[in-house]
Specification:
Layout (H helix, E strand, L loop, with lengths): L4 E16 L4 E14 L2 E9 L7 H10 L9 H11 L4 H19 L3 H4 L10 E4 L4 H10 L5 E5 L5 H11 L3 E5 L7 H13 L5 E2 L7 H8 L6 E3 L9 H7 L2 E4 L1 H4 L2 H13 L3 E4 L6 H8 L7 E2 L18 H9 L1
Parallel strand pairs: 4-5, 5-6, 6-7, 7-8, 8-9, 9-10, 10-11
Antiparallel strand pairs: 1-2, 2-3
Helix pairs in contact: 2-3, 5-6
Length: 329
């Protein structure tokens, strides 16, 4: 076989609605699509550039100019682990390479990513994320996506009552809570954990600042529902400190460096009796479909990024040639 070749394309994903969290708002996400090819085989990868993370298109360019691609897809996990060790602040960009290599291996071998990683079982239904919204916009989002099994409500300490009360008026379905570091007072968060437990909420995600492990540990010891780490958790090396302060993790392949590392994190979390979510960061179907291949390892699934955007090129069955033509134009 010839050597693996790499080409990349800058793109911007546009949201259907402004995406509001406790600390930010945006209308889209810049990304890069990676195409790896070997002879007649090919595989796509993707990374996104989130404004409150440090990686950018320049980070990506620096990464690919400094690494040597593997000669084959035989040992993707080894290549990725070595690349992460040498480039510890480029996990988003490395994830794009990892996903592309796994998809390339699927093209070469005919084995799905879950088969490559020896993952069995079917993933659970995904939640659908509702960003902090006005009452009218929130109702519209829920009605437009009424077929979803359950929802994730983004909140902060000021908006949580309005949002949860309104949701209960609109829908009888289950929901989870993601505060994105939006609480300041421990006792308020604890009171809400009991209120949410009474409503059947599955978990509360990242109530306090990502560096405030003490407050999370305090809440974990008292909350009737699991307290899940998101911003406080990046990858495998964080699992030990997470264990002391949280009940579980939100694993995102962007943050941890791809599917190889993601699967290892989820397996280790299970061994440590940590609950797990497999989540996303508003990526398109390239990342979402790849993440679904390891989702059977998680307790909950939050892979809805592709449902939140208007211009997902990979949502339909376009040929490789069509995709390249669109991305080059």
């Amino acid at each position: 076989m010839n050597n693996i070749q790499l080409e990349y394309f800058q793109y911007r994903l546009n949201f259907k609605y402004p995406f509001r969290l406790s600390h930010s708002e945006r209308n889209g996400t810049d990304n890069v699509y990676v195409l790896m090819s070997q002879d007649e085989h090919f595989g796509w990868g993707e990374c996104v550039f989130i404004p409150y993370y440090s990686e950018t298109i320049e980070t990506f360019k620096n990464l690919i100019s400094s690494i040597q691609l593997p000669e084959s897809t035989e040992n993707i996990a080894g290549f990725i682990k070595e690349t992460i060790q040498k480039n510890p602040h480029s996990n988003f960009c490395i994830a794009a390479l990892d996903i592309a290599l796994h998809n390339l291996k699927t093209s070469i071998t005919g084995k799905s990513i879950s088969e490559q990683l020896n993952i069995q079982g079917k993933p659970k239904d995904t939640s659908f994320t509702i960003g902090i919204s006005s009452n009218i916009e929130m109702e519209q989002k829920i009605l437009e996506n009424s077929n979803m099994s359950y929802y994730k409500l983004k909140v902060n300490d000021i908006e949580i009552k309005r949002i949860t009360d309104l949701f209960s008026q609109i829908s009888t379905k289950n929901f989870t809570i993601d505060a994105n570091q939006g609480f300041k007072d421990r006792n308020e968060a604890l009171n809400w954990s009991y209120t949410l437990a009474d409503k059947g909420v599955f978990y509360m995600e990242q109530p306090f600042h990502k560096d405030d492990f003490e407050s999370h540990s305090w809440l974990k010891a008292r909350s009737p529902i699991p307290i899940i780490a998101d911003e406080s958790f990046q990858g495998y090396s964080d699992l030990e400190k997470i264990y002391k302060s949280f009940d579980g993790i939100n694993l995102k392949v962007m943050k941890c460096g791809g599917l190889s590392e993601g699967a290892a994190c989820l397996k280790r979390a299970s061994e440590m009796e940590l609950k797990s979510i497999i989540g996303c960061m508003s990526e398109s179907s390239v990342v979402i479909n790849a993440s679904k291949q390891i989702a059977a390892l998680a307790d909950w699934v939050d892979l809805d990024g592709n449902l939140l955007i208007t211009n997902d090129l990979f949502a339909s069955q376009k040929s490789n040639e069509e995709l390249i033509q669109i991305l080059r134009s």
